[in-house]
Amino acid sequence: MLFCMVIWLRPNLVVHCVLSKPSYMVSKEGRTAGVLDNYAEGQKYAEHSLRKLETHVRRLISSSIRPALENPLNFARIYLPDLLPTVDRVVYLDSDLVVTDDVARLWSVPLRGSRAIAAPEYCAANFTKYFTDEFWSDPAMSRRTFEGRRGRPCYFNTGVMVMDLAKWRAGDYRERIERWMEVQRERRIYDLGSLPPFLLVFAGDVEAVDHRWNQHGLGGDNVRGSCRSLHPGPVSLLHWSGKGKPWTRLDEGKPCPLDHLWAPYDLYVRGKRTALIDS
């Protein structure tokens, strides 16, 4: 398995990739966020901190509406303060997106007070759909969970976040998210992967970012992955969140109109492996 995190540590963009299997070769399926030559990197992974993370988080993961969301490394964003112990602030980006603006503008978003993350919020979205009837029918969870939040609990997408890792550590947010994951294994309070526990811990306490920084949902929903158009307004970041991924649809010869915006940046070009260099 190839896993990559795109993290902006001012002034450098860092794309960190590791391989979980020494025999793995980069293919169309594994090209999403970078390419590494394989065997030596795979050998090192056996002792890598991500390997330990994978072992730890696997016991906390429950089944999801889409199997891809059950991958332990989808939960790595929870552990960035542990993986980057000397770093206090990052911009976290999923690997299924294209940035069309200066990411320094995103980096400069202030995190006021005790807020540990900043992200575009979507308060018009139906927040209730991210949790099951098991959650909403229990007053101890549905009402008390969001009491005392600074604002209205709203949906936000965890694929684009400014994160204050110092505040994260001080607030024990890793432990708080993991407690909800343990509840989920016992009571089935949501159907998605790593997103709902973020909402449970942070919704209502997120530093709002302009929507231009996450034109999300271009991969459709989590079941059909159908084509979607852009939201109204300016665009600084295109995000193919959802089941449908542009590289898959391009390979199948069935691209959505916006998938052609991904094609110039695809790392798998005409069957050749292309190295992604930290810069």
Automatic annotation (TrEMBL):
Signal peptide positions (record): 1-20
Keywords: Glycosyltransferase, Signal, Transferase
EC number from the UniProt entry: 2.4.1.-
GO cellular component, one term: Golgi apparatus
InterPro entries membership: Glyco_trans_8, Glycosyltrans_8_dom-fam, Nucleotide-diphossugar_trans
Pathway(s) where this gene product acts: Glycan metabolism; pectin biosynthesis
Molecular function via GO: glycosyltransferase activity
Domain of life, per lineage: Eukaryota
Family statement: Belongs to the glycosyltransferase 8 family.
Protein name: Hexosyltransferase
Organism: Acorus calamus
